[in-house]
Design brief:
- The protein is 76% helix and 0% strand.
- The protein is mainly α and 460 residues long.
């Protein structure tokens, strides 16, 4: 039976209108995707494969944030302040003590399989996907069975992190320095975290397990994406061995020094000391301010608004530090670490002096400064390790440095939990943590900066 001409014309117009509406709805998303692709693939990153690693790290950060949202809602926000202190202390003890024993094993183990790094990253993603499902059944009650799974997530996350850091030099384009490459990867993670945090909070409205279901989906996608990295990630062919900061010849008879973690010179050691103090500051502020602002909100604001303000300030500082690292033109990473150590010390001292006068400004400034300084210092430490540590033990160096920094964060957090909730006292302790790092590492970093650090090129 023939269709009337008027009816057929109306259906055609409806189809055309539908296609036009679909294109209009897709255009903002495709436009954003194209712009993001141009950014991640710029300066040769697309050709070298660094862009793939940037995208993978964004997926990793989004999954980790969804798990964090699920844990925070159970361990911190769902109970009164005093009980929350006990739960947080239990979380730190149950997860971090075994982590301190397991983490040093990760690096040497991965050093033995240098040709399986894509599989190692995929395995870390898949492990967290399965652990997220395991945690989904226990997160509502917050029982003890939640903590072993949280430990597994932490170990898998750090395993991914050390492999990712060791892979960056293999994917480095000729026109990008190590600090810039690390900055791009980290900045992608921060952007993904900023997107995943409200998404996880929205999923939590459906139920406490839903952020973990979201994390499962994200990590499964990351597992597949890991194998899209270039094959050269699993091959050391054509790579030059990293130069030792202390020289390639031994003191006696000019004999070669065996490559190892003890032969890299003082730059990495001083950089690690400085980063440990800044990471301790971060852990301290995370827990001290969380409990302080929950009990004593900033003037005119509620507890949730006060915590949100500090979180935004810290995230903005972290993003700014990462962005600065992406364009900063310095001779080497040592002066950068020395500068941010001095900045953090100055701001925390001023915070201790002026806390009683302008608490809102002080807390916001300290949070933003801590985020900025930690980001820049960590990028610079990664560049030192990538520059100075031999290829054969580089993954071990990253694993050990990550372990030390994680433990420093735990020490700072434990101090923050145990202190009385007095703002001025907290700022004095914060300044003291940074002062320890400045005393241990300041002179060595400045000396290395004057000497130009390692002779290796393209670090910053």
């Amino acid at each position: 039976m023939p269709v009337p001409a008027g009816r057929g014309g109306a259906e055609g117009r409806a189809r055309r209108a539908g296609r036009a509406a679909g294109r209009a709805l897709r255009r903002p998303f495709t436009g954003v995707a194209r712009r993001l692709r141009r950014v991640t693939h710029a300066h040769g990153a697309g050709e070298s494969g660094l862009a793939k690693l940037i995208e993978l790290h964004a997926v990793n950060s989004a999954g980790d944030m969804m798990i964090t949202v699920a844990l925070a809602s159970t361990v911190f926000f769902s109970v009164p302040t005093n009980e929350a202190r006990g739960r947080v202390a239990l979380y730190l003890a149950v997860t971090m003590a075994p982590f301190a024993l397991l983490a040093p094993v990760v690096g040497p183990l991965l050093d033995r399989v240098p040709h399986g790094r894509r599989a190692a990253m995929a395995g870390a993603m898949l492990a967290r996907a399965l652990l997220a499902l395991t945690m989904s059944g226990a997160v509502a009650g917050g029982g003890l069975q939640l903590y072993p799974a949280a430990l597994g997530v932490l170990v898998a996350s750090k395993a991914y992190g050390v492999v990712r850091s060791a892979v960056v030099p293999r994917l480095l384009p000729p026109r990008i320095s190590l600090v810039k490459a690390n900055s791009r990867v980290t900045l992608a993670g921060l952007v993904a975290t900023g997107v995943a945090a409200p998404a996880g909070a929205g999923l939590h409205l459906l139920g406490p397990a839903w952020p973990l279901y979201g994390a499962f989906v994200v990590f499964v996608a990351g597992t597949c994406l890991s194998f899209s990295l270039p094959h050269k990630v699993d091959s050391a062919r054509g790579e030059a061995r990293a130069r030792l900061a202390s020289g390639d010849a031994g003191a006696a008879g000019g004999r070669p020094v065996k490559a190892g973690l003890r032969t890299v010179g003082p730059s990495v050691l001083h950089g690690l000391q400085a980063n440990a103090s800044l990471r301790a500051l971060s852990g301290f502020l995370t827990f001290f301010l969380a409990f302080l602002l929950r009990a004593q909100p900033l003037g005119g604001l509620g507890a949730a608004a006060s915590l949100g303000l500090v979180a935004v300030a810290a995230g903005t500082g972290n993003a700014l530090g990462t962005a600065v690292g992406a364009w900063l033109k310095a001779r080497g990473p040592e002066p950068i670490v020395a500068a941010v150590l001095g900045l953090a010390l100055g701001v925390t001292v001023l915070a201790a002096v002026f806390y009683g006068v302008m608490a809102v400004v002080v807390v916001t400034a300290v949070a933003a400064t801590a985020g900025l300084c930690q980001a820049l210092a960590k990028l610079s430490l990664d560049a030192m390790i990538q520059r100075d540590v031999p290829e054969g033990v580089r993954t071990s160096a990253f694993a050990r440095s990550e372990t030390a920094l994680q433990l420093a964060w735990v020490v700072g957090g434990a101090i923050g939990i145990s202190l009385p909730l007095i703002g001025v006292v907290g700022m004095v302790v914060a300044a003291g943590l940074v002062a320890v790092g400045a005393a241990l590492a300041g002179r060595g970093l400045l000396g290395a900066g004057r000497r130009g650090g390692s002779a290796a090129p393209r670090v910053a």
